[in-house]
Amino acid sequence: MSARELILGKLIAAAPAPGMPLRELEERINAHHVRGPLRGASGTELADTLERVMTSVRTDVWRVDAHSWPALLARKLAAAGVGSLLLDTARAEGAALAAALPAEVRTVSFDRPLEEWKNELFADVDAGFTVARSGIAATGTLVLAPDAGSPRTVSLVPPLHVALVYASTLHADLHAAMHAEAWSATMPTNLVLVSGPSKTSDIQQTLAYGAHGPRALWVFIIDDTVGATA
């Protein structure tokens, strides 16, 4: 039996019967995912997995504590030659980072309509800073919930995207995230899922970074949980 036939056979066998009630279908889906390899993993194990998967796709990851990360990130931004950083100082994390930045790193706020400063944003802003709503360990994914202070442009336009995520917000997989955060009932208008820097191989199958977004992604995982399970 070929691989194609094997895959099709599994799909056909798993397909719901005609007329199956939605509740029964949902129960089958839940039963499948509850046996996932990371279900029951501790917070540290989820953070370990997120770090491993994201690192494998050319993401720079640091494990930090809730007190030292602003100073560490500020030093790394300065060392990388970042001259301007787009961030929301109305958030506690944004304010903490702004206070730690050296004079050579200028802060920029998204405090006016995009049309008024589009040229500056695309040409002069070196990096954007966001705080993830949560993370998905199995796929190495950050879940961003854009708002007025940090619209999705912050994570998509600057060549460097810097993201902060709390280990306590990590989920085992997408199914776990959707259920834990009640996406079906309370999903925001827009969610951005980030699984590494922008990349494409559309041209002659050559992998290139930065074609549709940031060329580089830095992720700082705050280890704020010990022993918590997904």
TrEMBL record:
Domain (LUD): residue spans on this chain: 51-222
InterPro entries: FTHF_cligase-like_sf, LUD_dom, NagB/RpiA_transferase-like
Domain of life: Bacteria
Leader peptide range in chain numbering: none
Name of the protein: Lactate utilization protein C
Organism, as annotated: Duganella vulcania
Lineage: Bacteria, Pseudomonadati, Pseudomonadota, Betaproteobacteria, Burkholderiales
